[in-house]
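Annex B. Sample input.
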Amino acid sequence: MVSPVPPDSTPDTTAAASRLRGDRGAATSLAVALLTPMFIFLAFAAFQAALWSHARTEARVVARDTAALVARSGVAADDAQASATAVLEADTDMRNVTVGVSSGGGVVTVTVTADAPGIIRGTTNSVSVTSAVPIEEITP
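Annex B, continued. Sample output.
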């Protein structure tokens, strides 16, 4: 038969053990307080890099499609330039969009320059993409 433990026979804890147990919680709180701002900064930096990369991809796609329209479909360079500028200004967050279309030497070159947005004011990034496509024509 097991006898019940009397209430005054609780395990003896020393002051040192009690102090160590309290310090562990303080160290965890300090680590969380120091690491949280760094984690938030890294998350914002990753999101900002993704925004800039997406803006560069959008500019690259429009430049390539515009060059292909001029080189392969015979669209006038001025019309393609106006269309590309309108698409970038209407469908993207980029500002100060400039599209240049030039052809020479059997190649159509399209350059798109714009400002990609940032999360925080003042963190915009300039994006410049150039795409060159050969003109398809029948040569004797």
